[in-house]
Amino acid sequence: MKNRYFKQGTRNEQNLYEDIILESIQIHGLDIEYLPRELVNKDIVTGEDIMSRFEDAYTIEMYLESIDGWDGEEDLFTKFGVEIRDAATFVVARRRFEHAVATYEDDAFIRPREGDLIYIPLTNSIFEITMVEDDKPFYQLENLTVYKMRTELFEYAGEDFDTEQDTIDDVELQTYNQIFTLVDSGETYFNVGENITYYVDSANGDTVAAEIVDWDASINKLSIAHIAASDGDFVTFTAGKHIISEDTNITRTIASIGEDLSAEDMFNSDYSSELEDLLDTSFSNPFGNVN
What we know:
This protein is α+β, with helices and mostly antiparallel strands. Helix content is about 15%, strand content about 35%. The longest helix has 18 residues, at about 10-30.
């Protein structure tokens, strides 16, 4: 039996310890934007969601444990190109997370969640939470005061960002857009930002939802992104079918289909121009010229 005259931590000691931890993070930490992930069409088998949405960004201070640089494998050169595999560990006070984030979400949101994002303004980078540890340090003074989050650099895969912060929402520029050329019609009114519905199979009610990112009425050119099917399957669009605007209820027919790879080409051009300064192709073959 424990000696009842000696306690590991009284309530006053626990509160003091928690206040010290909180103040230390506020002094030595960074202001971080915490982005909760909203699942739009969750697959009950895999637990994944092809179409996720991020609509809120909460400012909260966190301590970056990796003071000597990013963890992980960093820059990895493969036959498929350069992969950046940065990782980091963040520490956030439980009390601050409850006040700054959990208070504004639903009752089930009581701790950081795997899959949520962390935006670091200092480096202009986004990390995805892969694991949350809630028992380290392990019961100091019989109390748990922080969450420790292991994160990896976020890879954009078509998620919808509507946080109203341009520095975060601009991550959508890394994707490609589906382009529709529509059949001429007297109905020409579309709003950028509104959703459209594409009927894959009218008999079964299978639909695809997408967001309009650009509309040129003079040439009937419609660009869409954030495409998600109601059944979670991959969908190939077909010319001759209809799309319906959810705001104006306008129905238009698709004449032809294409893709906009301008964002991808832009990044490839940047790499090409930088490599021209690094690679010297003027030297001759030291083993002789190949005929």
